[in-house]
Amino acid sequence: MDMHMTHYMELLMTNQPWNLIIYMVIPVVLAETIAISELYLLFTGKDSGTVKTLSRVSGIIVGWYFLGIFVNLLFTAVIPLTSSNGWRGFADVVAVGFYLLGVIPLFGIALLGMNFICSSASQRERNKLHAIFVGLFLVVAHIAMIFGMVDPSMLAGNETHGNMPAMSHPK
After folding, report:
1. Helical (H) or strand (E) element with 16
2. Is 101 left (phi over 0), alpha (psi -120 to 50) or beta?
3. Mean pLDDT by 10-residue block, N- to C-terminus, for the chain (171 residues)?
4. CA-based Rg of the chain, rounded to a whole angstrom?
5. What is d(CA 85, CA 99) in angstroms, rounded to the nearest whole number?
6. Burial level of 68, CB count in 10 A (0-12/13-18/19+)?
7. If phi over 0 gives left and psi between -120 and 50 gives alpha, with beta otherwise, what is residue 59?
8. Do the domain assignments include residue 160?
9. What integer pLDDT is reported at residue 154 of this predicted model?
10. What total of structural domains would you count in the chain?
11. CA pseudo-torsion sign 77, 83, 85, 89
12. pTM, full prediction
């Protein structure tokens, strides 16, 4: 059986363990810190303290960090793959696209934490928006992971994309 991988999976597997840490571990650990903090705050009814600060700081860091990843991958992967017709099929585009869509909720969390958006809204409304951003990130990240693990030739129709050039990744 001849198997191929999406550019998403190739990115994570190249330059081990560094790409895995840079593109998956750091953003996911920070996002999960926020999610777990939100659950703690929800169940305890607290709206301040160390856990709230941890969540806020994690949100600001991950938002800016992921914006850097987005810009980097846009110029080193998405634009070159699109201009050279280097995509490996539908699953490849969905995996990379949904991974990069994570910038919307993560940067939204950062902007919310820095009071650049919704600064005049009530704390309850800000908490709702924060929870929506966290949930949205979890959805897009999981879609990216699912499609990223698919052999792209399964969803590529009649074409074979196994001979496409490999994506270059930052070392």
Report:
1. none
2. alpha
3. 80 94 96 94 90 96 98 96 94 96 98 96 92 95 95 69 49 50
4. 18
5. 19
6. exposed
7. alpha
8. no
9. 84
10. 1
11. positive
12. 0.86
Q: What DSSP state is assigned to residue 78?
A: I
What is the distance between the alpha carbons of residues 99 and 30, in angstroms, rounded to a whole number? Answer: 15
Q: How many Cα atoms are found within 13 Å in the side-chain-facing hemisphere of 151?
A: 9
Instruction: Report the 10 Å Cβ neighbour count for 156.
Output: 18
Are 57 and 133 contacting, i.e. CB atoms less than 8 angstroms apart?
no
- Domain membership flag for residue 166: no
What pLDDT does 153 receive? 83
* Cα angle for residues 79, 16, 27 (degrees, 5° grid): 65
Residue 100: inside a domain:
yes
Cα distance between residue 103 and residue 64, in whole Å: 9
Which is it for the CA torsion 23, 24, 30, 32, positive or negative?
positive
Residue 76 lies in a domain: yes
| Cβ atoms of 92 and 7 closer than 8 Å | yes
Residue 20's domain comprises 7-155
The DSSP 8-state label assigned to residue 23 in this structure reads I
Contact 19, 11 (CB under 8 A): yes
